[in-house]
Amino acid sequence: KQEVTQIPAALSVPEGENLVLNCSFTDSAIYNLQWFRQDPGKGLTSLLLIQSSQREQTSGRLNASLDKSSGRSTLYIAASQPGDSATYLCAPAGDDYKLSFGAGTTVTVRA
Amino acid sequence: GAVVSQHPSRVICKSGTSVKIECRSLDFQATTMFWYRQFPKQSLMLMATSNEGSKATYEQGVEKDKFLINHASLTLSTLTVTSAHPEDSSFYICSARLSGRVGSPLHFGNGTRLTVT
């Protein structure tokens, strides 16, 4: 059973600071890995998808890296803004496409 | 982009009644949809995999007779919580993947907040 750990559980930073969110998973035999954003009481918004053969993906201010062999992924958010405040979830997928979720990192960006 | 619509967004029902939640893929076909539930301050837990035209497969510990799943078309899956009890109160979210697109991302609905009184 895939176990996903996200560190830190919560993070509060001033606007403009760069964010580093860490994710580790126990089973390295993954198909791909997705990072999501969840606002309070809302569903999930997909941010980035990294295939198991890739090392990183970038979208705007977001960059996600993947080290499959060591079971780690990191999400970097550059020049954070108050609108980035949300919970960020890491979810590796097996070859059955089922996602396993971590508990998330709750980010607060202070104006 | 791919859109998944979930309805209703919020429902309050009395204990013992049944509630149906719909999950639709609006602009793509999805042979497979997934149902998750999320308790406050906790992560999402997969409940079941919904397969178009066949029976759903349930994760260990999920009662299939309580959480009825129907996936009658390539764009619609429904989850019915039967004889709901207060402990079924939770946030239910569905997700779908584009058919035939190996490695494509999962897209999620906005979730349904179920409160059983």
Characterization of this structure:
The complex is a heterodimer of chains A (111) and B (117). By secondary structure, chain A is mostly beta strands. In chain A, 0% of the residues lie in helices and 55% in strands. In chain A, the strands form two sheets. A five-stranded antiparallel beta sheet of chain A has the order 1-3-8-7-6, with no helix packed on it. In chain A, β7 (62-67) and β8 (72-77) form a beta hairpin. Chain A starts with a strand and ends with a strand. In chain A, 37% of the residues are buried. Chain B is mainly beta and 117 residues long. Helix content of chain B is 0%, strand content 52%. Chain B contains no helices and eleven strands. Chain B has strands spanning 4-7, 10-13, 19-25, 32-38, 44-51, 57-58, 67-73, 76-81, 90-97, 106-108, 112-116. In chain B, the strands form two sheets. In chain B, strands 2, 4, 5, 6, 9, 10 and 11 form a seven-stranded mixed beta sheet that branches. Chain B has a four-stranded antiparallel beta sheet with strand order 1-3-8-7, with no helix packed on it. In chain B, β5 and β6 form a beta hairpin. Chain B is globular. The model of chain B has no long low-confidence stretch (mean pLDDT 90). The chains are: A mainly beta (111), B mainly beta (117). Chain A binds chain B through residues 4, 31-32, 34, 36, 41-46, 49, 51, 89, 93, 96-104, and chain B through 6, 32, 34, 42-46, 49, 91, 93, 95, 97, 103-111, 113.
Task: Offer a concise description of the structure.
The complex is a heterodimer of chains A (111) and B (117). Chain A is an all-beta fold. Chain A contains no helices and 10 strands.
Highlighted features:
heterodimer, A: 111 residues, mainly beta, five-stranded antiparallel beta sheet, five-stranded mixed beta sheet, 10 strands, 55% strand, globular, B: 117 residues, seven-stranded mixed beta sheet, four-stranded antiparallel beta sheet, 11 strands, 52% strand
